[in-house]
Amino acid sequence: MIELRNIETFFWVATLGSFRAASDKLNTTQPAVSQRIASLEADLGVRLFERDARGVKLTGKGHELLSHAERMLQVRRDMFEAAREQNVMTGTVRIGVAETIVQTWLPTLIELVHASYPALVLEIEVDTTHVLRSHLMARQIDLAFLMGPVLEARVENLPLCTYPLAWVASPLLDLGPEPLTLERIARLPIVTYPSNSA
């Protein structure tokens, strides 16, 4: 049986033009390289190199077989790459993000995802929670970061964090020290989120 190690040695001797250079490249000894080439020649039943005082050169059959060796080594590289890619997350994830989150921790999240999964593509859609809920249910996005849960059996909700909410008023309103009732608040001009944003 032909050993792939011997084929790799044949490739490097042919490419570098000497047994010594091939032994350096393969981190082995020159006698080990000579033994591998002799073993490969015996397995194939052909002579691969002509040796003289100036070094080694491929025989006609060696030239012919070198392209086969290159393809075999490429197949090995492809095999290792395919095995490695099984552990790499690739593809595209469509993410819906509520406007509030865009202004807070979304940039940090994108940086962390890119650092951990560089082959993963994120498509970001920014909209109101109301719109993103609809897109999630229609499978137009894969996941969504929203303010509040989606109350649907086929959606899994995972609480990530909480945000404190508070009323903020201009001192020009001169509201006084007394606590405000809902009735008084309702009479004031209020800047807030749209009614369909939560």
UniProtKB/TrEMBL annotation:
<dbReference type="InterPro" id="IPR000847">
    <property type="entry name" value="LysR_HTH_N"/>
</dbReference>
<dbReference type="InterPro" id="IPR036390">
    <property type="entry name" value="WH_DNA-bd_sf"/>
</dbReference>
<keyword id="KW-0238">DNA-binding</keyword>
<feature type="domain" description="HTH lysR-type">
    <location>
        <begin position="2"/>
        <end position="59"/>
    </location>
</feature>
<dbReference type="GO" id="GO:0000976">
    <property type="term" value="F:transcription cis-regulatory region binding"/>
</dbReference>
<dbReference type="Pfam" id="PF03466">
    <property type="entry name" value="LysR_substrate"/>
</dbReference>
<dbReference type="InterPro" id="IPR005119">
    <property type="entry name" value="LysR_subst-bd"/>
</dbReference>
<dbReference type="InterPro" id="IPR036388">
    <property type="entry name" value="WH-like_DNA-bd_sf"/>
</dbReference>
<dbReference type="Pfam" id="PF00126">
    <property type="entry name" value="HTH_1"/>
</dbReference>
<dbReference type="GO" id="GO:0003700">
    <property type="term" value="F:DNA-binding transcription factor activity"/>
</dbReference>
<protein>
    <recommendedName>
        <fullName>HTH lysR-type domain-containing protein</fullName>
    </recommendedName>
</protein>
<keyword id="KW-0805">Transcription regulation</keyword>
<keyword id="KW-0804">Transcription</keyword>
<comment type="similarity">
    <text>Belongs to the LysR transcriptional regulatory family.</text>
</comment>
